[in-house]
């Protein structure tokens, strides 16, 4: 079996290794998209770590990731609990709740732009109608950050809903029957049985969603483009703009490598939690 799998493994290593090695080489040079430039060692990384824009992107990426992961998980878990018991129309509602995840992000981002982008959009007009101050949601830095984070939760909670529903369906019903016999209430059943028994699936979903969110380019770029005044510039958007708009691949690839290191650290921490659960 090993001999049969060897060609595929070699091809996989070659296909993945070459871009990584080339990118690592680019991160150590001061070239552009056409000329690799001169070798500058760790100068690009020094510039990155001393750049205020990079640290602003780090702060936003952390906020974006934490709110996206925990917010989508909380909504997905609550829905999974609600759908655990059969009721009329359950299947139709499940499909309806999957739509934010199924619909292409381009269509969803256009819908949200229509909803909040201008003073004539429905949400600002609703605010004005009930006497609240005029708010341009995507022009104000604080509001733009909030809208992007809410948008991420909106398109991500169906994934968590599926993961948590599958985890809950895997719990043996006799466990709940025993808890009922022992007199456990709903809160005790949730905190001492359902949450611990679905902890492994929870940590796995957090790992996956952290990867999806940190690497999420279209959600931010299509909704705000990283603005206003770089308030919603995430690390992946910063890397893209630096490479393809400022034509500084060394700096941009350096940002990407720092992102990769952060993802590895997050994944290792969560995988340790998974092993503890096992």
From TrEMBL:
Q: Domain named ABC transmembrane type-1: which ranges?
A: 58-272
| Family annotation (Gene3D superfamilies) | MetI-like
Q: Which residues cross the membrane?
A: 60-83, 95-115, 135-155, 203-229, 249-271
The UniProt entry's sequence similarity note says: Belongs to the binding-protein-dependent transport system permease family.
Q: What's the name of the protein? A: Sugar ABC transporter permease
Places the protein is found: Cell membrane
Kinase among keywords: no
Going by the UniProt record, its keywords in alphabetical order are: Cell membrane, Membrane, Transmembrane, Transmembrane helix, Transport
Q: Which InterPro entries match?
A: MetI-like (IPR000515), MetI-like_sf (IPR035906)
Q: Which Pfam families match?
A: BPD_transp_1
Q: How does it sit in the membrane?
A: Multi-pass membrane protein
């Amino acid at each position: 079996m090993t001999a049969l799998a060897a060609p595929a493994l070699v091809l996989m290593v070659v296909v993945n290794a070459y871009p990584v090695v080339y990118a690592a080489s680019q991160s150590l040079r001061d070239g552009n998209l056409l000329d690799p430039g001169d070798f500058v060692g760790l100068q690009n990384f020094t510039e990155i770590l001393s750049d205020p824009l990079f640290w602003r992107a780090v702060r936003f990426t952390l906020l974006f990731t934490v709110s996206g992961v925990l917010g989508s998980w909380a909504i997905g878990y609550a829905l999974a609990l609600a759908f655990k018991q059969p009721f009329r129309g359950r299947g139709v509602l499940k499909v309806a709740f999957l739509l934010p995840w199924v619909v292409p992000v381009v269509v969803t981002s256009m819908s949200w732009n229509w909803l909040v982008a201008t003073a004539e959009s429905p949400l600002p007009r609703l605010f004005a109608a009930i006497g609240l101050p005029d708010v341009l949601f995507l022009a104000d830095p604080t509001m733009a950050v909030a809208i992007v984070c809410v948008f991420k939760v909106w398109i991500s909670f169906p994934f968590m809903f599926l993961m948590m529903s599958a985890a809950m369906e895997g719990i043996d019903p006799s466990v709940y029957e025993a808890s009922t016999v022992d007199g456990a209430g709903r809160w005790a059943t949730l905190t001492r049985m359902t949450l611990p028994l679905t902890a492994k699936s929870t940590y796995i979903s957090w790992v996956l969603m952290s990867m999806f969110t940190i690497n999420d380019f279209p959600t931010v770029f299509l909704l705000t483009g990283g603005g206003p005044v770089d308030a919603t510039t995430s690390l992946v958007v910063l890397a893209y703009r630096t490479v393809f708009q400022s034509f500084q691949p060394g700096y941009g690839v350096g940002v990407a490598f720092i992102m990769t290191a952060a993802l590895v650290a997050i994944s290792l921490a969560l995988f340790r939690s998974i092993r503890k659960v096992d």
